[in-house]
Amino acid sequence: MARSSAMSNQFTMPTIFFHHKTFGQNIRLDNNASRAMRHTSFDNGITFTNKQIQMNEHIHMQIVDIDESGQWLGSLAIGFIQIDPGSIQRHELCKSAIPNICQKTGISYVKRIFERLTRQTVITFYYNQDGAFYILDGKEQEICKNVNVQGPMWGIIDLYGNVKGAVLITQPKTVVDSRTFFIKYDQKPDKLPIQYFTQLKPTNLQSIIFYNIHGPELDLYCQNKVVFRKNVRKLSRPYLFIDFPMRPDDELYIRILSVDLNYRTPGVIGFTNAEPSTVVKTIDKLPADDPMGLYDRPEFWIINEDGFDERLSELDEYRFVFDQKGEIHMWRILSVV
After folding, report:
1. Looking at the structure, do residues 290 and 157 belong to the same domain, yes or no?
2. How far apart are alpha carbons 58 and 127 in whole angstroms?
3. Within the chain, how many helices (H) and strands (E) appear?
4. Which of 78, 88, 239, 331 gives the lowest tally of CB atoms within 10 Å of its CB?
């Protein structure tokens, strides 16, 4: 498969690293101090940046390990501290960044993130005259108001509870418009050859298209065979229907062309007995924030909210089979989902 250089790594080396001297006793640093892992227990996971953070300078971090056993309560905490981490001895660090980071007297602005976090989640945080803020799922949220911007600031990341590992990254590369989207590939996206389901013969495949009425965030290309979600500040109803009524023994294949790591939730996929032409007439009445609200509608809906998870990558292929028993089976690449 031909791929252009634009399809290379989504991150380059960061300019901010973890402080190589001061960190919690359960933390291990590697990758030149760009990666921090809590290797045991649920606490003693405080880390700092290796340099002062300037006003409006963004810290980008990506979660790389989550404890899924359910044995630990609590989660990640992020923020800023006005104490030089180099002046703090490791034995002076507290087990958790809240309520106190260390035994020294100093000002800190820290908030625990209670949203459900997954591997690959990207969180950005920064401060300015209006306060300290973090960005998650494209939404800016407050860490603290009334920040003293006159003093020096270091970033703090507390790998606490179920969050076990994080890396510091550069700003994730995103496809900002359809032009950028198309130049990523040497060929038209709808003409890319099959990469995983290689047992399929192109001559046995029939092209299908997306329904031409959809959510306002979406644009269709390549005779409605390719959909692109525009770069918008807020997602409202990015719904899309496939113009292909499945019957027993039918199979359906789709390919993921672009992934925005600024969002925790890659999306959901499902099936309905509703006629799309009827539903799309009132697309503004579909649930705006939670697609699971589709179950409250009178039509029959099957929603798989875990079909697209944190493993989702560009050029992943999905297969759907509607069998004679009325069951729908789903494969990601070559594995059953």
Report:
1. no
2. 8
3. 2, 20
4. 331
Measuring CA to CA, how many Å separate 253 from each of 214, 256, 319? 20, 10, 5
Tell the residue number behind the tokens 């494969």, with chain if given: 331
Q: Are 155 and 125 in contact (CB under 8 A)?
A: yes
- Mark out the alpha helices in 22-155 (DSSP H runs): none
| Cβ atoms of residues 200 and 337 within 8 Å | no
- Considering only CA atoms, which of 105, 88, 107, 106 is closest in space to residue 46? 88
**Which residues are CB-neighbours of 185 under 8 A, at least 6 positions away?**
2, 3, 4, 7, 192
What is the reported pLDDT for 177? 64
Whole-number pLDDT of residue 135: 92
Q: Examine the domain organization and report whether 91 and 144 are in the same domain.
A: yes
pLDDT of residue 187: 61
Q: Whole-angstrom Cα distance, residue 110 to residue 94?
A: 14
Q: What are phi and psi of 228, to 5 degrees?
A: -130, 130
Give residue 196's domain range: 178-336
Q: Where does residue 66 rank: exposed (0-12), middle (13-18), buried (19+ CB within 10 A)?
A: buried
Least confident of 144-158, 166-180, 290-304: 166-180
Last residue of a domain, one of 146, 169, 192: 169
Q: In this predicted model, what pLDDT tens digit does every residue of 226-236 receive, in sequence order? A: 998 887 767 77
